[in-house]
Design a protein that fits this description.
The complex is a heterotrimer of chains A (102), B (165) and C (615). Chain B has 165 residues and is mostly helical. Among the domains of chain B are: 60 residues, Four Helix Bundle (Hemerythrin (Met), subunit A); 55 residues. Chain B is 68% helix and 2% strand. Chain B has a two-stranded antiparallel ribbon with strand order 1-2. In chain B, helix 1 runs antiparallel to helix 2. The two termini of chain B are 38 Å apart. The longest helix of chain C is centred in the C-terminal third of the chain and has 50 residues. In chain C, strands 1-2 form a two-stranded antiparallel ribbon. Chain C has 615 residues and is mainly alpha-helical. Among the domains of chain C are: 251 residues, no CATH class; 73 residues. Chain C is 75% helix and 3% strand. Chain C is globular and about 115 Å long. The chains are: A mainly alpha (102), B mainly alpha (165), C mainly alpha (615). The interface between A and B is large, with 67 and 80 residues.
């Protein structure tokens, strides 16, 4: 049986990232959109940790730490905005949030 | 997850995938990050998501299906496949997909710093060392970012209260 | 002296400013203020003329503004010709102001009228006192402006509005040449100051050129309404009569002659000859046109043109002193006649057709007799003012240039014919219309200036009666003419001219009471030719309509097509296209943005792969 090599991890990371991106492009629900963003970030994290592990360098892992921090902050603010918008427009769908008239 | 119609089930699938990533972290011997992944993502972020989903109360299929959706979906898929292909081309041409097949073992009890680089280790102690020395400034900035996010969220929700009053 | 000159200049400006700012609604106060300022002008100018050191030339200047090394000065030059004109302007100006009190008594826009008069006095004094060409040009434009204002006093009538525009535009043509002349003068001599110019020109007479003189004379041609820019003056009679008297007879149109005298040293022989010839032809032509005019003021306007032609001829003969002399006497008798016609028009309720007058001598004796004095003076009856100046011109012409003389002499005969025609039709015979039946003698405000001017028209020709300062400039030329031969012969010819004109006019117009011009019955072709004014207006109209307008329309199309269309709209269109492109990105839809984001990422990747970024 073939051993699991770093390139497998990388491929998985790419898949995660792509699925997340696919979600961002496809979904209209902003909640799911934010979740998809999280998924993309996870893909990145995975790739970073893999690189960190193969090159025996802790910097990548520490970056993952920072990415998690930023992601948490982003989710908090994004959800707050979402709630505020929902109160105003009674909708969480991105096409209802178009303020540009055309 | 991205295909599920109900946001709650989407969130559940999300938790599964997050836990999966955490287990992969364990396999990569980044135990601290795995714990963090579970705590922050699966614990805090997803709970927040679920909470908001319950709060705004979106139904399973509230989104309007349109031709636009189909077209953009197809275009998205096309773009993603293009992205993957081009990424694979890069990886292929750089030639280390085969060379990365071996895992170099982790040196136990190595010095935390080798040259300019922090050495990889399973201990939380080396994380702390790295954050407090080389990444001192980014650590403080991210702390500040968290503070700003907190203030922002408070302001946003408070303003809404004033409006509703 | 500087203070006197400055206050002389600023007094009417102050009066105009106060009138236009505060007294728009108080016509009577404005009128009194304006008349008072005219009186002040007379006082100041007599101080300037007769004050101590008045036998010397007074000049003073200060820097007005500076553009790098080019400096423009503001200064006064009060030499002998300036003193003569100063006397004429302030004296006649005051009389006409007083006359206006009576003439404009019932006018609704008195304040505007008197404000305009004050502006005119200011600008006219400015021309008189200026010591450099640029300043003269500034005041030149200002008199044009005030003339425009005053012609358009009755702006509700089309005639006045069109006439004011015509005057302004025709003057622009002349002033353009004048401006070019000033620029070339500066280029050639490096200065526009009159005194410095005269020094330089005398040192090196070869610097000047006929071209330069003619360009400068363009200003004179426009302002003095000489050929070919004479068409505006008859139309300018649409303004109030005192304005016609002051601006379009006595002072402003004479400013052209004054300008020529100021820059006399620049003129070449050829330029002088041309001006003399053009002036004499103008004298004849205007007299010919005046023969058949029906409007009393237009007859006088053509007569003014003709007399200005005489002045130009005198100047062209090299007798600028005589030109100034004739300017002065002409100012007296022409102002007298214009004011007389104003008095008649006022009495006849603004009826201006001389065939609707008649028999006014008995109803308006003062006006009639003073008018008669004016007619006699302009016709050159012996020992009246016109005789001295006009016969001096004729005598000079006889001895210097016979062609000019013969043209001028014909003009002189015509002058007496149309002048006596005017007098007979207006004041003799029987009344021919209702409006003139009810005419009564005008008020004392109007008759008093008439009497004063009549006295001047009688005695104004005796130069020894004037204070020395005023006639200083005239004397050399007068004595030069006095030493010429053929005096007696000239007297006989002059006598023949005015008596012949008198008899001719009496024969045709003296006993006739019809409302149709008898000349039309007797010599219809000649009459037609004269009424057509030799088709100058038609030619200009043809030029404007057929040549200028199509050309402008062509230019307009070009402008619409290329500048407005291609360049302005075109560049705006290109910008708008870019804006449309940019706008399409800004759709407000999150998914569109993310698509573009992906495309951008792909672009970077493609660059990384294809551009050989990877080593």
């Amino acid at each position: 049986m073939e051993t699991i090599s770093p390139s497998h991890y990388l491929f998985l990371a790419l898949c995660l990232f792509s699925i997340g991106f696919f979600g961002v492009l496809l979904r209209r629900n902003i909640l799911l959109l934010l979740m998809s963003l999280e998924l993309m970030l996870n893909g990145i994290n995975l790739a970073l940790v893999t690189f960190s592990r193969t090159s025996l360098n802790l910097d990548g892992s520490i970056f993952v730490f920072f990415i998690m921090t930023v992601a948490a902050a982003e989710v908090a603010v994004g959800l707050a905005l979402l709630v505020a918008l929902y109160k105003k427009r009674q909708s969480v769908f991105s096409e209802d949030m178009n303020l540009v008239s055309n | 997850m991205v295909c599920s119609k109900h946001p709650v089930s989407a969130a559940m699938f999300m938790i599964i995938s997050l836990v999966g990533v955490a287990s992969l972290f364990v396999l990569l011997e980044a135990f601290f990050l795995a714990v963090l992944q579970i705590l922050v993502y699966a614990g805090a972020v997803m709970v927040l998501f679920l909470f908001i989903i319950m709060l705004v109360d979106v139904g399973p299929n509230a989104g309007k299906s349109s031709k636009m959706k189909l077209i953009s979906g197809l275009a998205g898929a096309f773009l993603i496949s293009l992205l993957i292909v081009s990424f694979l081309i890069i990886v292929q041409s750089s030639g280390w997909i085969g060379g990365g097949a071996n895992w170099s073992p982790i040196i136990e009890g190595a010095e935390p710093v080798i040259g300019d680089n922090l050495s990889f280790s399973t201990s939380v102690k080396s994380f702390g060392y790295g954050l407090m020395t080389k990444y001192m400034l980014p650590l403080q900035i991210s702390g500040f970012l968290l503070l700003a996010a907190m203030v922002g969220v408070i302001v946003l929700s408070k303003k809404e209260e004033q409006n509703t009053n | 002296m500087v203070q006197v000159a400055l206050s002389l200049l600023l007094l009417p400006l102050l009066s105009a400013g106060i009138t236009l700012l505060f007294l728009r609604k108080y016509g009577n106060i404005a009128a009194l203020l304006s008349v008072a300022s005219a009186g002040g002008i007379l006082a100041f100018s007599s101080f300037l003329i007769f004050g101590k050191d008045s036998d010397q030339i007074f000049s003073w200047s200060t820097t007005w503004f500076q553009l790098s090394d080019w400096e423009l000065s503001f200064g006064f030059l009060v030499d002998s010709p300036a003193k003569t004109l100063l006397f004429v302007v302030s004296f006649v100006g005051l009389l006409i102001h007083i006359f206006s009190l009576g003439y404009m008594a019932d006018d609704k826009a008195k304040a505007r009228y008197f404000g305009g008069l004050s502006i005119f006095m200011f600008s006219m004094l400015g021309i008189t006192l200026s010591d450099n060409l640029v300043m003269i040009f500034v005041f030149w434009e200002l008199v044009g402006f005030s003339s425009y204002l005053l012609i358009a006093h009755y702006f509700s009538t089309d005639e006045a509005a069109n006439a004011s525009k015509k005057a302004f535009i025709v003057n622009r043509v002349g002033d353009f040449g004048f401006l070019l002349g000033i620029i070339i003068t500066y280029w050639t001599y490096g200065t526009v100051n009159l005194q410095e110019l005269s020094v330089t020109a005398n040192l090196d007479p070869s610097l000047t050129s006929t071209m330069l003189c003619l360009l400068l004379a363009c200003g004179f041609i426009g302002k003095s309404a000489q050929f070919p820019l004479h068409v505006w003056l008859p139309d300018a009679m649409a303004g109030p009569t005192p304005v016609s008297a002051l601006i379009h007879a006595a002072t402003m149109v004479a400013a052209g002659i004054f300008l020529l005298i100021r820059i006399e040293f620049l003129f070449t022989v050829e330029a002088l000859k041309l001006i003399g010839l053009a002036g004499s032809v103008m004298g004849l032509y205007a007299g010919f046109c005046a023969l058949t005019q029906r409007d009393i003021k237009k007859v006088l306007a053509y007569s003014t043109l003709s007399q200005l032609g005489y002045m130009a001829a005198a100047f062209g003969l090299g007798l600028p002193g005589i030109a100034l002399f004739h300017l002065m006497t002409h100012a007296f008798f022409k102002a007298l006649m214009f004011l007389g016609s104003g008095s008649v028009i006022h009495a006849c309720h603004h009826e201006q057709d001389i065939f609707n007058y008649g028999g006014l001598r008995k109803k308006m004796p003062v006006t009639a007799y003073t008018f008669l004095i004016g007619v006699l003076a302009i016709s050159g009856v012996h020992f009246l003012s016109g005789y001295f100046s006009k016969d001096a011109i004729l005598l000079g012409a006889y001895n210097l240039d016979f062609v000019i003389f013969s043209i001028l002499y014909l003009g002189a005969i015509l002058t007496s014919i149309y002048m006596f025609r005017l007098y007979f039709l207006t004041f003799c015979g029987e009344t021919r219309s209702k409006s003139s039946e009810n005419a009564v003698e005008s008020s004392v405000f109007m008759t008093a200036p008439l009497i004063v001017l009549a006295v001047l028209a009688v005695f104004g020709g005796f130069h020894s009666l004037y204070p020395a300062q005023i006639v200083e400039y005239l004397l050399p030329d007068i004595s030069r003419v006095a030493e010429m031969p053929h005096h007696l012969w000239m007297n006989i010819l002059g006598l023949f001219a005015w008596v012949g004109g008198l008899l001719f006019a009496w024969k045709i117009y003296g006993s006739d009471t019809q409302s149709k011009d008898p000349l039309e019955l007797k010599a219809p072709s000649l009459f037609q030719l004269s009424t057509s004014k030799l088709f100058f207006d038609e030619v200009y109209l043809f030029y404007v309509n057929r040549i200028q307008d199509p050309f402008f329309r062509f230019l307009e199309v070009m402008e619409l097509l290329f500048i407005s269309g291609l360049m302005v709209r075109g560049s705006a269109g290109v910008a708008a296209l870019f804006a449309l492109l940019g706008k399409s990105f800004y759709s407000g839809k999150i998914h569109h943005y993310s698509f573009w984001f992906v495309l951008g990422t792909l672009g970077f990747l493609a660059y990384a792969i294809l551009g050989g970024g990877i080593s």
